[in-house]
Amino acid sequence: MTAIAENDTLEAAVPAGVYAETVLSVTHYTDHLFRFRMTRPDGFRFRSGEFAMIGLMVDGKPIYRAYSIASPSWDEQLEFFSIKVPDGPLTQHLQRIQPGDKVLMRKKSTGTLVLDALTPGNRLYMFSTGTGIAPFASLIRDPETYEKFEEVILTHTCREVAELKYGIDLVAEIKADEMLSEIVGDKLRLYSTVTRETYPFMGRITDLIENGKLFADLGVPPLDPATDRGMICGSAIMLKDTKALLEKAGMTEGANNKPSEFVIERAFVG
Ligand code: A2P
């Protein structure tokens, strides 16, 4: 078979309404977590914080899962942060991708973790657990976040210390980047905690909100609907519990068509 014929076969296998993009890099953090970057199709537009359907051809059939786009809307590449599930229909295959491989992406992105869904405020909290940090990895690299908010606090809670590395490296990269660091200045703060190992900051974010330790550690006042806005991304139970605490503080949930004081989205599982 000639190279051209092989390409024809690949193109023919890509379903309509789907991009087939090239993997550029893959970074493995733990046995359960990895990041990959791929080419961004010409004409693919999204808002920072949105998710897209990502997939692979498996046995001749496409398999998709929802993935938050972890890169900002201005980036010429697309980044994703994923768990690895040994028997996960998609991630058992996706975790083995290499630079040069093709990954499928449906053409439409969507989501509620967008700046448009929040009313104006001073301090933006982004509460995340596990791979729920991904949409915030996008938003903290978007200059619009810093045009709209004076202070951005990203919380990331994981079971183990090694799982924090993606977020810690990301914030260090932002601070080292000549252009981004100028835009971000001192506005961005990362508050990382773990729940199942010893670490300087420990505990579930819900407990740390409830007992006030989060605010004491950061030296900020407790949640206030007049000044604070929130975005939450984690497991279903984490969303439910964190949302209840924000509501207790007098904040109401918003949506794309009805901006308000906080928004939530489930961290998707592969
Ligand atoms: P914990 O270790 O106490 O369960 P998971 O991988 O299960 O989604 O958990 C990711 C992180 O989210 C863990 O640190 C976990 O803490 C924490 N977590 C789990 N459930 C909740 C919840 N209901 N509220 C806040 N944090 C939670």
Describe the structure.
It is a single chain. The chain has 270 residues and is of the alpha/beta class. The chain has two domains: 103 residues, Elongation Factor Tu (Ef-tu), domain 3 (Beta Barrel); 150 residues, 3-Layer(aba) Sandwich (Rossmann fold), CATH 3.40.50.80. It has nine helices and eleven strands. The two termini are 35 Å apart. The structure holds adenosine-2'-5'-diphosphate. The site of adenosine-2'-5'-diphosphate has 14 residues, from strand 8, helix 7 and helix 9.
Secondary structure: elements and pairs:
Elements: H1 3-13, E1 18-28, E2 33-39, E3 51-58, E4 61-68, E5 77-83, H2 91-94, E6 102-106, E7 123-129, H3 134-139, H4 143-148, E8 151-158, H5 165-176, H6 178-184, E9 188-194, H7 205-210, H8 213-218, E10 228-234, H9 236-248, E11 262-266
Parallel strand pairs: 7-8, 7-10, 8-9, 10-11
Antiparallel strand pairs: 1-2, 1-6, 2-5, 3-4, 3-6
The structure holds adenosine-2'-5'-diphosphate (A2P).
Residues 129-130, 157-159, 195-196, 204-206, 235, 237-238, 241 line the site of adenosine-2'-5'-diphosphate (A2P).
Largest sheet: 6 strands, antiparallel
Query: What percentage of the residues does DSSP assign to strands (E)?
Result: 25-35%
Shape, per Cα inertia axes: globular
What is the gyration radius calculated from CA atoms? 19 Å
Strand tally: 11
Largest sheet, order of strands side by side? 4-3-6-1-2-5
CATH topology of the largest domain: Rossmann fold
CATH architecture of the largest domain: 3-Layer(aba) Sandwich
Which small-molecule species are bound to the chains here? adenosine-2'-5'-diphosphate
